[in-house]
Amino acid sequence: MTSTFKFPEGFLWGGATAANQLEGASNEGGKGLNTPDVLPGGKVRLKVLSDPGFDFELDTEKYTYPNHEAIDFYHRYKEDIALFAEMGFKTFRMSIAWSRIFPNGNELTPNEEGLAFYDRVFDELLKYNIEPVVTISHYELPIHLVKEYGGWRSRELVTFFERYVTVLFNRYKDKVKYWMTFNEINSSLHMPILGLGFAIQNEEDRYQPTFQAYHHQFVASARAVQLCHEIIPGAQIGCMLVYLPTYSVDSNPENVLFALQEEQIFNYFCGDVQVRGHYPAFIKRYFKEHNIELDIQDGDLELIKENTVDYVALSYYMSRTEKKDKKPEEVGKGNILGGIKNSFLKASDWGWEIDPTGLRISLNQLYDRYEKPLFVVENGLGAYDKVEEDGAINDDYRIDYLREHIKAMGEAVQDGVELMGYTPWGCIDLVSASTGEMSKRYGFIYVDKHDDGSGTLERSKKKSFDWFKNVIATNGEEL
């Protein structure tokens, strides 16, 4: 179909991944152990992510660890990047593993093997005129920083992070123009193990350590913005949010207010600090009501105020519907971030509700609030893919999903939203962050790797590969 809208010239079409979900080679090249390395595969991972007793230890007799090999991008990056180039990618969103650069996280000298690996990846991308977009910290923390310092609970991580980003900016200043600090920073309100590097020990202790850790990340992010602008003039560095527009289940004012408050805390708190440069009024009341007192050092608030991000990146997968007094049976099956089932929406194989209009709503809400360029850096459909006898993978369901979301983005551009680009998640099949499964596939490129660890790792094109190639070639005019 031909669209009735136009995306801006220079729109950054591409795909998105994370180091810990595709690189593999978990103990090669001087890399240290990190948090994803100790997360088990399969649906047990969701239980681990909310386990207050999780000890960040490997138990190979009890669990499998698919992130250790993942899809072996570490050795196959040239093959994969050639496929991205064949699709016509303008950009590739990836992350750097902190534990590849500083294996323990707190060394004084970086690991040259790790730095050289990313040099090779960037050179390969640039050979095809694919612009790297780099997430500095994507659900990955060296285990040493978890065990010795308690993750982002510790103020010392600000110093270690500053050392890490200084090395990155100096090393890759001629190769990378687009950076992001912390992936889906607000998700730690629900899953601190992924983003903050610690487990909540008990419900009474949930708020204080989480928000103190957030403050440390805000300071670290602001310092990264400052250093990026100093070391790489002209570079752009953004924050990154997981965004779920939050609907009230009905027009009952109590439910509307509850939905608003949930949206403020989850969708806007982190963005307000990183984009507007200060703690918003609503969070101050929240702190008071939950007896949260932050240790804020001299100069922190000034640093945050003076070093706001250049753009706002977001992941969008679903919307969220709320009511004040919901019953357990009302909670949506796949809504790992809360909410109740929305009777107006269909859901994916994993129960994630599909709401393209919610993306248009999200982009309008964020642009109205921040008036900064937006970048949709994750969006996609996790689904079971069937390989036919002739090798074909007819993923029309994925094409339909992406088409409707691209149309929603096009409408948002017509609404006046300044949109930088679109990098669908998992452009090549990789290990799921939430469930550790390979069977939850997102990619345009199929990888022969399965939940039990079997497979050849061979790459093959799905039907969506050629479809997305044409979308890019026509700058979104043919969907």
Task: Describe this structure in a few short sentences.
The protein has one domain (12-241, 352-473): Glycosidases (TIM Barrel, Alpha-Beta Barrel). It is 38% helix and 12% strand. The protein has helices at residues 19-22, 44-49, 73-87, 98-101, 112-127, 143-149, 156-172, 192-195, 207-231, 253-276, 281-289, 300-306, 356-370, 396-415, 463-473, and strands spanning 12-16, 91-95, 131-137, 178-182, 236-242, 246-248, 311-315, 320-322, 346-347, 353-354, 374-378, 419-422, 445-447, 459-461.
Number of domains: 1
Strand content: 5-15%
- The CATH first-level class comes to Alpha Beta
Strand order of the largest sheet: 1-2-3-4-5-7-11-12
**CATH fold title:** TIM Barrel
What's the number of helices?
A: 15
CA radius of gyration: 21 Å
Helix content: 25-40%
**Biggest sheet statistics:** 8 strands, parallel, barrel
Ends apart, CA distance between termini = 5 Å
Low-confidence residue ranges: none
Q: What do the pLDDT scores average to?
A: 95
Number of strands: 14
User: Based on CA inertia axes, which overall geometry fits?
Assistant: globular
Structural class: alpha/beta
How would you name the CATH homologous superfamily? Glycosidases
What's the order of the H and E elements?
A: EHHHEHHEHHEHHEEHHHEEEEHEHEEEH
Oligomer: single chain
CATH architecture term? Alpha-Beta Barrel
Active site: 378
Family: Belongs to the glycosyl hydrolase 1 family.
GO molecular function: 6-phospho-beta-glucosidase activity
Keywords: Glycosidase, Hydrolase
